[in-house]
């Protein structure tokens, strides 16, 4: 594996790990100021690693070509689902914009925050569990289940009050 491949893989692994840590911190009951600061820091650092991942992917895999990235997305989609469609690349662009908006706008309306974070969760699940392979798929599934359990426990704790 080349240095470029390693950089591309590890920047997304770190980004999604920080993503999961930030969500886990936010889902803990009893909001503490230090915990929210840590969650915001992990959230912003996750975005920076994600942007580094995008840069590495375009540098080392697509030669800074949108068309090459589109063709590769179509090929991977074809492998998994039987039809060549590169439109998933635009979902990745939307993911980038949504995460950036969520980091740069710390107090959006609740409905917008929920929409952004739901969209991010859906695409993170797609990237790790649906399109992922090997231990990445299992780590994505385990993280998703753990975060869902935290979310459910947090909702149950709020209802019990």
List keywords for this structure.
mainly alpha, 0% strand, 161 residues
Overall geometry:
globular
Low-confidence stretches: none
Give the biggest beta sheet.
none
| Helicity level | over 70%
What's the pLDDT, averaged over the residues?
A: 92
- The tally of helices reads 6
Elements, N to C (H/E): HHHHHH
The value of Rg in angstroms is: 17 Å
Class from secondary-structure proportions: mainly alpha
Strand content: under 5%
Account of the 3D structure:
- This protein has 161 residues and is an all-alpha fold.
- It has one domain.
- The chain is globular and about 45 Å long.
Quick recap:
This protein has helices at residues 3-27, 33-60, 66-81, 88-104, 110-130, 134-160. With 161 residues, the protein is mainly α. It has one domain (3-160).
Question: What is this structure's SSE topology?
Answer:
Elements: H1 3-27, H2 33-60, H3 66-81, H4 88-104, H5 110-130, H6 134-160
């Amino acid at each position: 594996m080349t240095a470029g491949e390693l950089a591309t893989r590890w920047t997304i692994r770190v980004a999604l790990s920080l993503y999961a840590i930030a969500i886990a911190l936010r889902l803990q009951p009893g909001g503490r100021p230090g915990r929210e600061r840590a969650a915001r820091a992990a959230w912003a650092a996750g975005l920076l690693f994600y942007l580094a991942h995008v840069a590495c992917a375009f540098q080392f895999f697509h030669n800074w070509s949108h068309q090459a990235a589109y063709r590769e997305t179509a090929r991977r989609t074809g492998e998994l689902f039987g039809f060549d469609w590169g439109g998933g690349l635009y979902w990745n662009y939307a993911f980038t914009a949504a995460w950036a908006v969520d980091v740069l706008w710390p107090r959006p309306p609740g409905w917008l925050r929920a929409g952004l974070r739901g969209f991010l969760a859906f695409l993170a699940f797609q990237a790790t569990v649906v399109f992922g392979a090997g231990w990445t798929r299992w780590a994505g599934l385990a993280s998703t289940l753990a975060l869902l359990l935290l979310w459910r426990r947090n909702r149950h704790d709020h209802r019990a009050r």
